[in-house]
Structures are given as structure tokens and as C-alpha cells.
Amino acid sequence: MKFSLLGVVSQLMALLVALLLAPLLSGWVQQWRVRFQNKTAPSILQPYRSLHKLFHKECLMEHNATTLYRRAPYMVFGCMLLACAIVPTLSTDLPLSPAADAIALVGLFALARVFISLAAMEVGSAFGTMGARREMLVGFLAEPALLMVLFCASMMTRSTSLTTIVETLVHQDLVIHPSLLLAGVAFTMVSLAENARVPIDNPDTHLELTMIHEAMILEYSGRHLALWEWAASLKLFAYSCIGLAIFFPWGVAQANDPLALLWALPVLVFKLAVGGFLLAVIEAVSAKMRIFRVPEFLGTAFLLAVIGLLVNVLLGAG
After folding, report:
1. Which parts of the chain have pLDDT scores under 70?
2. Rounded Cα distance, 185 and 73, in Å
3. Which of 43, 147, 194, 219 is most buried, most CB within 10 Å of its CB?
4. CA neighbor of 216 nearest in space, from 286, 112, 63
5. How far apart are CA 7 and CA 256, in angstroms?
6. How many whole angstroms separate alpha carbon 19 and alpha carbon 15?
7. Which pLDDT value is given to residue 257?
8. Residue-level pLDDT at 317
9. Close Cβ partners of 155 (under 8 Å, ≥ 6 residues apart)
10. What is the model's pLDDT at position 1?
């Protein structure tokens, strides 16, 4: 397969932007979330400082830690970075475009979930096992809903490739698609669950009866904990870019267009800033729900996505 020079540059830029902007996006959301609570907001650069501090701290390990426990942070971090690489964030001319399939992307998220759950159960701690069980429950319910959302977009474009979806939707007339509206609501609900955000989980809590993601990484420290935190930011960045690629694809550069590639970066930053602000608003007006209400929440997301598919069929788009 032949790769163009611009395509290689676009791919490298996508990786670099993901690595640099993911912590910034997390800091932006956290800053607005704290402001809405009428508290003194931390610096938007606080995630970078936390990562720097953790990478320079000693890495302590459980006495019965196995190779899986040690390698899981690197595996999950790699999965999240690859997910960011195959999503068309800046350009559709990417060497990894053939791998940018909706089903493969969901499988990549599922693979990362398996690694983090196995690592949480590896040391046999009560919190880790509890968090792993809850994480698998959320994944079991969220993945079908995410697939239905992606299938809704793929029915409109006749392809499950994210690159093809973006290229098709960006050239369509600006109209309101009822199916995409339903899919957009479902995708927002799935994103909140998959990224351990309110109302499903609270990323700032350490209460044993409510935490999900934090329970799985309580035993980690040093660079391993830094990789977990960075991977969580990359996951939020990846989901944000997936939503932008499907529902707001305008601004993504096309193949062999260097000027559009340069313009795509500030457009992406603007869209992420707006999306991060809206995420903070949703978390500010929502309350943490009980764990047994999560199936109802994600079941509603799945139902909305299925209705979107049916609307596609009824309107003749499928």
C-alpha cells in the first residue's frame, strides 16, 4: 500500500495532537465543572503537572503482582492511542484509514476494558474486583448502544469506515436528520458511561460504594498510574473526536490539501472546547445515580439508537 507524504504527516499530527490535547481537554472540563460549583477552579494545565509528578515518583508494586498487572497500563494506553489515531480528527488522508472501521474501533475499546478489568482483579483486592465487575457491566450495556449509533451513521453513508462517513456527511447539504438527532443523544449517554462521568460515575470520588474506574487503579502508583490517567484522557479525547466526526464533521481536511490541514487544528480545538464546556454543564446539572439504575440509563441509549436506525429505514436512507 502506498502512503502519501501528506498522509504520513497527517497521521503523525493526529497522534501528536491526541497526546498533547487529551490532558488539556480533561483540564478544561474539570475547570468548568469546578466553576459551576462556585469553587476556585484549578489551572487548565493541572493534568500536565499531575502527569509530570507521577512519572517522577517511585512505582510501587503489589507483592503478588504478575506480568499482566505490570503490562496492563501500557496495553490500555496503546489501545487508546491507536483509537485516537484511526479516528479522522484532522484529516481523512490517513495511512491507518483502512483500519478506521466502526466495528474495529468498538473492539479496540473492548480490548482495553478487558485488560484493565483483568489487571484490577489480578491482585485480589476487594475494591479492584468490585470495580472490574462494574466496569464489565457498563461495557456490556454500552458497547451495543455504541454499535447502534455507529450503524445509524453507516446506513446513511453505506460504509462502516469512519473516514468514508466523514467524507460523505461533510459533502451533504446542511439538513437536520432525525436519525442523527436520536443517535446523538444516545452517543452522549454512552460517552458519559464509557468515560466514567456523572451521572454514571464520578471521576473525583474515592467512596468505595460509588466508584467504578478509580476502584480499578487504586493499587497503582508512579508511572503506571500516570499511564492510567493519560489513557483515561485519551479515551475522552477519542470519544469526543468520534462524536465530532459523525455529528459535526465540518472542518476535517480532505486528502492532498495542506492548507485545509493547517486550518483543521484550530477548528478541532474550538469544537473540543465547546464540547468540553457542554460536558461540564451536563455534569453540573446531573446527580450521581445508583449503580442499579445504570442498566436503565444505557438501555434507554440503546433504544434511542435503534429508533434512529428504524427512522433511517422508514425515511428511505437505509
Report:
1. 1-3, 173-175, 206-209, 255-256, 316-318
2. 31
3. 194
4. 112
5. 8
6. 6
7. 75
8. 47
9. 179, 309, 312, 313, 317, 318
10. 45
Which residue in this structure is represented by grid cell 448502544?
A: 145
The Cα-based distances of 315 to 145, 178, 179, 183, 309 in angstroms read 21, 10, 9, 15, 10
Q: pLDDT at position 208, please? A: 66
Q: Which of 162, 167, 149 is nearest to 104 (CA)?
A: 162
Residues recorded for the chain: 318
The reply to whether omega before 42 is within 30° of 0 (cis) is no
d(CA 256, CA 8): 11
pLDDT at 3: 60
The conformation of residue 89, written as its DSSP 8-state character, comes to S
Q: List the grid coordinates of 241.
A: 473526536
Residue type, 268: L
Contacts of 91 (CB under 8 A, 6+ apart): 6, 7, 10, 13, 14, 252, 253, 254, 255, 257, 260, 261, 264
And the C-alpha cell for 262? 493547517
d(CA 49, CA 190): 29
